[in-house]
Amino acid sequence: xxxxxxxxxxxxxxxxxxxxxxxxxxxxxxxxxxxxxxxxxxxxxxxxxxxxxxxxxxxxxxxxxxxxxxxxxxxxxxxxxxxxxxxxxxxxxxxxxxxxxxxxxxxxxxxxxxxxxxxxxxxxxx
Length: 126
Prior knowledge:
Layout: E1 3-6, E2 10-13, E3 18-25, E4 34-40, E5 47-53, E6 58-61, E7 69-74, E8 79-84, E9 93-100, E10 115-116, E11 120-125
Parallel strand pairs: 2-11
Antiparallel strand pairs: 1-3, 3-8, 4-5, 4-9, 5-6, 7-8, 9-10, 9-11
């Protein structure tokens, strides 16, 4: 059974940094075709943040994340990370990691992902 287990998150001041880990269990890292991070703020729809297609290593970022967030992985730990720097209050949301083994040409779309983490809260204070 494939599971994505998230940790990290928490409260941080504006301008600070956080790293969100997401560990894959039930499969090895090489099983994944693509991984993405999405977030959902209170009262808003879930939105795309960052994605990576592991074969080729192409990365995708939402405009709001470009220059501040980095998606990466560690195949020795079967883990994917979202490094978030220069955090802003508007980054406050529940963050979800997701993964798929299917080939996708639109890795920024939620429906392309079959497996989801449980979500982790990030709160940025002024």
